[in-house]
Amino acid sequence: MLTVNADDLGRCTVATDRIMACFAANRISAASAMVFMQDSERAAALARSAGLDVGLHVNFTENLTGPNVPQQVRREHERIRKFLRRSKYALLLYNPFLRRAFRKLFQGQAEEFQRLYGRPPLRIDGHQHMHLCTNMLVDRILPAGTKVRRNFSFSPGEKSFINRCYRNIADRGLRQRHRLTDYFFALSQHLEPSRFRRVILAAKTAKVELMTHPQVDDEFTFLLGDDYADALGEVQLGNFESQDDLSQVELVS
User: Fold this and answer.
1) Of 18, 46, 48, 141, whose CB has the highest number of CB atoms within 10 Å?
2) What is the DSSP letter of 52?
3) Helix or strand or coil: residue 227?
């Protein structure tokens, strides 16, 4: 099964409108929403009305552009943002001085998601994948039992051995407390037909999440193209709830 998940719902009007257009055309099947952003309120209303499967897109690194951000949320966000943007390796470091800040900021965003969508987030990923930063993993801040986005899936030779080992170790740890897909790919890395074929082949026998950002012109054009539509005809396109249904079928069989 293939789940095509569009990130950054609510980030701005362009992101929201393109995501909803792709969903209406049956080119995506789920989305991840940012809270405390410029278009978060409108995005939530549109997604709920359309029946779009939405999870929480945790934001630790991009400015909060919403009009009514609580002072504590903004303060903790700025502290964490400065730390994580200091270096591309900052997410690998554990900062003991930000333990409470990470927890409070996550809780604040989860509570805002519940206000906007009428339920707690049952699925969690992160802007720039910062939900997998070391502070989040070591302190086990993500609620147990939730669906969590795993690390990218790479074949041998695509990344260094150490890189792949680190990702595999992190995913094994995630799997002990959370539900993961079998594979995770980014559309931005699979826009060429030969590369995209890899995603389709994996989805024929496993649960695959394909991340996309429709506000990016190249990805939006690809999503609405005929070649993409033809490829989707070869697999089962479903959301994350459909993956749960598939798991139940597998258990029964």
Assistant:
1) 18
2) -
3) helix
